[in-house]
Amino acid sequence: MAISASLAFSALPYSQARLLPARVLSRRCAPLDGLNFEIRKTPSSYALPRKCDYPDCAPRAYNNPGPGYLQNGAGGLPPTGAAPLLPNQGRVLQTGPLRVLCIADVRGNLRSLNDLAKQARADHIIHTGDFGFYDDTSLERIAEKTLKHVAQYSPLISEPVKKAIQQGGPGPVKSRFPPNELPLSELPLLISGEVKLDVPVYTVWGACEDVRVLEKFRTGEYKVPNLHIIDEARSMLLEVGGVKLRLLGLGGAVVMHKLFDNGEGRTTIAGGQGTMWTTLLQMGELVDTAHRVYDPTETRIFITHASPAREGILNQLSVTLKADFSISAGLHFRYGSSYNEFSVNPTLDHYRGKLAASKASFNDVWETVKSEVEPAIQQNEAQQNLLKNALQIVEKMPTTAAGGNPFGGPAAGQAALGQVDESAFKNMWNFNLADAAFGYLVLEIQDGRIGTEMRAQGFNFSHRGAKQQPGIPPTTAGPAGIPSPAPPSTQSSVPPPTSRQSSTVQAAKPAVATPLRGPAKPATPQPAPSLN
User: Fold this and answer.
1) Secondary structure class of 2 (helix, strand, coil)
2) Burial of residue 270, with CB atoms counted within 10 A of its CB: 0-12 exposed, 13-18 middle, 19 or more buried
3) pLDDT of 200 above 90
4) Which of 8, 338, 437, 448 gives 262 a disulfide partner, CB atoms 3.0 to 4.6 angstroms apart?
């Protein structure tokens, strides 16, 4: 297996590298001149204050970068349930019934977010990737192959241009079309303020995004009101409808041989040439973040671009995060799906087999790069802890289909082999979404209960009716429920179509005079006649 030589740990010299994002610290201050402001501070710089959009902006004691400050991966973590001690948990309060719209793959058509929110009567939007994180400079960085893929499915590029790209031609696509004919996203309109989001949007990045744009959002160079990016270093807490919803997210594609490759990323965000993927350090940091904000009274939603049902390591990660729901996309179906592992696996061993196969694939990569990775992080304790978190996820995965406990329960000795806690196997629910152009999911939250509503445009089956032979219209039922006689056919070899009627009507129907090629098939299976 070819392993990329560019490691996430060696993108820059360690004296200069910022592989761990500076944790954004915030504290709310008392009202000033009638306005509430939220001061955002990083260890190296201050960002401009912005108006506080939280309903509880009273002064509150938060940790400051000093003796009480702990970066992700640092030792001496606070005990679980210490969420109130952390700086700015992204807490949103809202009373009464609430609707959360879950969609996927808007592909840069960001105006549609407001339209979909109105259509679904949504108060919040959760988006699962391929959002359209491209700006005006992204076109020059995107690879030719990726550009063709993005253009093929983009709702912003005109159909004539799509056809011309698909048919091919001399030279690269960028040289054959002016930039105004290759719009990748409406994100610049959001950044400039020309287009505004009507409701809060919580999103992870997908497989086709620009890593430079995401880094500008992380540093604060790009800001869009009502747009919240959920990643390994940031989670959000929505206290709505009597439920505390904790949003945990992990963006990018899951590609085993890229788990240690940071690409063009300058921080922990991995990607390059218009594509993005997940790294093992991101998984380890997400575990660290989830541990810091853990509160047993919360309901946890794990938002990913790749489907945990197809990626065993993501499935195990969702169990490690103690997720109650997972919401994903990336399969581009016309219908959404709702399932738990118990409903799609015949046995627990069958489920273990999926995890064991994923573990074997990871170990192949890990054994190849282990000799380079471990020396690279020898002097960085924080990264060692993050890597340890991620490796512990894999270690808990079963090696064979018949053994190991994927849910972290006791499994000591051969007597306990195969005995697992089936609560996550049955209770953790997964939603895989259709593309936003074809359907969506709504979580309706009221009085502590989370209901669901799923809509889909679906498939078009009208082509089947168009293949009927002309001159033989389908049989229609009369007013009394008796089939109307079909007109005589000039081709006696083709039996006339009959409609589905009740058994009593079928019994009263006279025998068809047209000769058949063989004995007629009954509508339902019947026992064979006796030969005696």
Assistant:
1) coil
2) buried
3) yes
4) 8
The b/e string for 329-366 (b: 16+ C-beta within 10 A; e otherwise) is bbbebeebbeebbbeebeebeebbbbbbebbeebeebb
Quick one: CA dihedral 321, 325, 327, 328, positive or negative? positive
Q: Mention every residue, 6+ apart, whose C-beta is less than 8 A from residue 144.
A: 172, 173, 174
Using only C-alpha atoms, what is the Rg of the chain?
A: 28
What DSSP letter does each residue of 315-346 carry, written as one string?
HHHHHHTT-SEEEE--S--SS-EEEEHHHH-S
**In a domain? residue 413:** no
Q: What angle do CA 488, 489, 494 make, to 5 degrees?
A: 130
Give the structural domain span for 127. Answer: 88-142+184-408+421-456
If one compares 3 and 471, the residue with the highest pLDDT of the two is 471
Cα–Cα distance between 278 and 283 in angstroms, integer?
A: 8
Question: Residue 105's pLDDT is what?
Answer: 96
CATH classification at residue 98:
3.60.21.10
Are 28 and 45 in contact, with CB atoms under 8 Å apart? no
Identify the CA nearest to 440 among candidates 180, 117, 159. 117
CA atoms within 13 A on the CB side of 236: 24
User: Is residue 53 included in any domain, yes or no?
Assistant: no
Cβ contact 383:9 at 8 Å: yes
- What does the block give as tokens for 211? 């890593």
> 446-449: long-range contacts at Cβ-Cβ below 8 A with a sequence spacing of 24 or more?
446/96, 446/97, 446/98, 446/241, 446/242, 447/97, 447/241, 447/242, 448/241, 448/242, 448/243
Could you tell me if 284 and 377 are in contact, meaning their C-beta atoms sit under 8 angstroms apart?
no
Q: Is 47 in contact with 22 (CB distance < 8 Å)?
A: no
Burial class for 113, CB neighbours closer than 10 Å (0-12, 13-18, 19+): buried
**What is the average pLDDT across 149-174?**
94
Structure-token pair, residue 126: 């959760």
Residue 29 domain-assigned (yes or no): no
CB 273 within 8 A of CB 212: no
Domain contains 515: no
Give the percent of the chain with pLDDT over 90.
57
The number of domains in the chain is: 1
Query: What's the confidence (pLDDT) of residue 243?
Result: 94
